[in-house]
Amino acid sequence: MVDAFAYLGDVIAEYQDRVAAEAYLEPMVGRDEQERLGRGRRARFDGYAAITVRDEASAAELAKELDARDDVETAYVEGGPTPPPTPPPVNAGDDPRSGNQGYLDAAPDGIDARWAWGATDGTGIGFVDLEQGWTLNHEDLAAAGITIISGVSQAYHGHGTAVLGEVVAVDNAKGGVGIAPEASARVVSQFRTSSTYSTAAAIISAADAMSPGDVLLLEAQTTAAGSSTTYLPVEVEQAVFDAIRDAVDVGIVVVEAAGNGGNDLDDWADASGRHLLKVGDADYRDSGAIMVGAGASAAPHSRLSFSNHGSRIDCYAWGQNVDTTGDGWTGTSTTAYTGSFGGTSGASPIVTGAAVLLQSWQRARSGHPFSPGTVRTWLSSSLNTPSADPATDRIGVMPDLKAICERIEWNDRFKGIDDRFVYWVYILFGIINDAPGLIWVPGKGPVPVDPDWRDVAVRGRRELVAAIAREARAFDGRLTAKQLDRIAEKAFKTLGR
C-alpha cells in the first residue's frame, strides 16, 4: 500500500505553484491519533489523504484533475459537515402520537423490546453512536457512564442525546428506558478536532476500540459532489464505504441511517454514472451495513416522504413521534425530553437497539454473538413487520424480536444431529410445523405437502419417512443404513410430539 501522504507531496507542491494558492495535505487519520492509539487496522488506509484548499471551486477542480490521473484510484470532494438527518416537522393533526415509546411494543406496532427484556437487556454488548455532539450528563443518561472514544462533542448535542436515549436511557425513576439499557455505550465524533471533520476517520477510530459482536450506529448523512440529489447515506463516499466494510469484516455490526433526502437510491448514480446502491446492478457494492429507512409510527407504517428508499434498504422503524431524551436537535439541557424526534435519525437507533438485544441474547445463550451478516439476515427477514406497501415503500421491514428469537430457538431443535443430516430433517420442517411443506418423492423430487398431513395414518407417515430415507441413500452414497435410521429416528421423535 502506497502512503498517499508521502506520494502526493510533489503533486500538491506543483499545484500550489501553478495556481498561486495554498493547499494543505494531511493523512486521513491524523499523526497524533496514530501515535495515541496505534495504527492497528489503519494500515490499509495509508492510501488515503485529505487535501484542504481555499474554496469549493478549487476543491472541485483539484479533485477532477487528480481523478484523471492513472496513478490515483479516486478523488472526490468530501461532503463536509452537514446536519444529521433532521426530524421532520410534526403535524399533530395528521401524525397522531401512538403513545410514549410505542416503538418498544409488540409487533406490528413496534419491535417488541418489552418481550425481549424477559431474556436480555443488552448486557455484554458494546454500543457506539457516531455523530457530532451529545449531552452525556443528561439526567436519564448520566448513570450509563457513556464516554467519548475520540473526537470533539461540538454540534447538534440534542440530536445525539435523543439517539442515546432511544438505545440506552437508564432504567430508573426518571424519563423513559432505552431499548437495551444495560449495553456498554460510548460515542465517537465526526469532528476529529474543533476544526477538522471526517466520518471515515471516526469509523476507523471506533472500530479499533470495539470488539466483535458490538454495534456501531452511523447517525449521519452526506451530499455528493456533482449529484443533483439531496442527502445520501454516508457510504457513498469511498473512504467511508471502506471504513464500514473494514469494521464489518472484523465482526462489528454497523447500522447506517439511509438519510432524509427522499431519494430512490436505485436511481442515484455517482459522478461516474455508477449505481452503487442498486442491488443487482453491475456496479453495486455491499458495505455490510444494515441500512435503515423511516416509516410512520402508526401501523401499518407507510414510508415517510423524506426517507431515502430502494433495494439497498434493509430495515425501517418509526421516523416520527419518537419519545426520548434531549430536544432532538441542538439543545444541551440535562432535563429535556421530546415526544417528536424522528427522521431516519429516529428510526436507526430503534433498529440498533434491536441488534444490540439480539446480540446480547445470543451471547448469553451460546457464549458468542452472531456475525454481522447473520444479524442483518435476521433483522431484515420476512419474519419481521412489513411496511404498508412494500413494493412502493421499499424501506425493508421493522424487526420483530419475539418472532426472530422464537424462530432461532425453533431451528435449534435440529442441532442434536450431525450437520450432514440437518438438511434431510429440514425437508420435514414444514410438515412438523403443521404448515405447508415439502416431501421428497423418489423420481419426482420435492413435492408440496398439504397441512392436512396429520389426517394420514401412522403407517402412511412411516412410509413417507422411509421414502425420504431411501432418497437420501440414493442421493449420498456415504450414508449407511445405520445413519439413515438416525434420520428416521429423529423424524419419528419429532412427529410424536
From TrEMBL:
Family annotation (InterPro entries): Peptidase_S8/S53_dom, Peptidase_S8/S53_dom_sf, Peptidase_S8_Ser-AS, Peptidase_S8_subtilisin-like, Peptidase_S8_subtilisin-rel, Subtilisin_DY-like_dom
Coiled-coil regions listed: none
Region listing for Disordered, in residue ranges: 75-103
Gene3D superfamilies, per database record: Peptidase S8/S53 domain (3.40.50.200)
UniProt entry tagged with the keyword Hydrolase: yes
PROSITE patterns xrefs: SUBTILASE, SUBTILASE_SER
Keywords: Hydrolase, Protease, Serine protease
Feature: compositional bias, Pro residues: 81-90
Signal peptide stretch: none
Protein name: S8 family serine peptidase
Organism: Agromyces bracchium
